Fold this sequence. Notes:
The protein has twelve helices and eleven strands.
Amino acid sequence: MPQRVGLSVSAARRGPLHSLPAASARWRKQFFAPLLAMMLLATGLVAAVHAHESIGSVSNAVVTIDEASIDYYLRIPRQLRPFMFATTELRYYKDYFSRALLLGSAGQPCRLEAISPFSALSSGNEIVRLSYRCAAPVRELTISSEALLDVDDKHVQVVKVFAAADLDQVLGEAVLDARHTRAQLHIGNDAPSLLAARLWRFFELGVEHILIGLDHILFIITVILATTGWRDTLKLVSAFTVAHSITLALAFFGLIALPATLVEPLIALSILYVAVENVLAKRVRARVLLVFAFGLVHGLGFVNVLRELSFEKNELLSSLLAFNLGIEAGQLLIVLPFVLLLDRLRRHAWQPSAIKYASLATGLAGLVWLLERLPYKPLAGLFDRLA
């Protein structure tokens, strides 16, 4: 009788199929973690190359209406003036603004009739007056503006409309940027409607500012990488939020001020420091005070977009609160999905390796930013070749 051929349990355990789970775990640890980190590294390098590539300037516009006549006083930020026409001949500027800054009323376009010579301000900025003529007295004003976006794609223009006979009463206001190039204003809207519209636009401005502020986002992500759970994450995010809100308010009201040449390198240094600590420290502890301290620095970076704006006294606090709420909402949009992903990663054995590789990637981006923002730029010319 032929002998039955089979495998014992112990033999099966030693067989090649049994080694698959262990091999798969080694593959995830040796391949997936570095792959995840390399993806973050590529994102970090692209962010570092393109961060702050445009100026992020702000201009105020005062518009006065006298029946069918409109005077549009536009402030040209000093940092943008060199990128405009080299000539002083007004016909070039008239042609530019007749295409880039369009006004209309009751469905009819208003004609740009004249442009005044540029007037220099003590701040180094300049004012240009654009005179428009509409077909009928203005009751509804449409503004379509791409002015200055060709030299700064992050430019923000804050418009306020007044009656020529009463410059104390705001008739309408708008905030224009690359995503919102058109505004329709119903002249003489009641105060609550104007307040609601302004608060919503400053909320949107805060959301946009944090979403394009890649260095701020990268900092908080690098901090969260080393957290051990939801409670730890909540403490650190809260510390960052409270800290940057404090310095944002103090700087907005002019109580403290630091030059951007100091603040921007410190923001980059904060990313680099936290990333190095993630890699070298066996266990990260007592980080709340550190995150709070760095959050104070980041708040000074947030205020730059508001510093150049002109506000009425009764608008200061409400505009600041709306802007700060927008920052928090934008931060939540990015942080929450990342925290959920990190919570799932904690269940895997290769999670420590992934965190270290990811921290190396964010730290490298912080280092590139730091070198880019120093007064002496050792990387000058490198980004031009990479772009």
